[in-house]
Design brief:
The chain is of the alpha+beta class. It contains one helix and seven strands. The longest helix is centred in the first third of the chain and has 28 residues, at 3-30. The model has no long low-confidence stretch (mean pLDDT 78).
Amino acid sequence: MSITKKISVAGSFATILGVAIATYSAFVASSEQEINQVMNGDKNTVVGENSGHISINYNENSSNSKNLVLRNSTTGVSLVLSEPDITVVTDKTKHVCAVISGTPVSLTGKVSDINASPRWKEISILKGECAGKTGWVSASVLSFE
């Protein structure tokens, strides 16, 4: 066998081997991989480049998650009303409850907008003397703690 034929056979073999490696690499790269990333800090997630799906779970139900509470720093008490209207403050029949600051509440999902700004939110009181009652509060007295 001449040197030219030997080089030709070696070149053919190298080409076949190169195609096989490239095909295998593409197959391995396309398979799904699950990567868990653990970072310390407040919702500190860093995402570089992605070609698949990303699921981010901040573990909102963990023991260090923040709770929604009523917080009136001026008087220490938040007035819960039966209607989302400041004018009913003087009508005691429209008062649902006077709630001490720091009382946990949950949002019902209802809001009352004033000039396209959600000024009033309907809440359910979770603890204290008014637990179980539902009413409206100014968005300014809601706080996460």
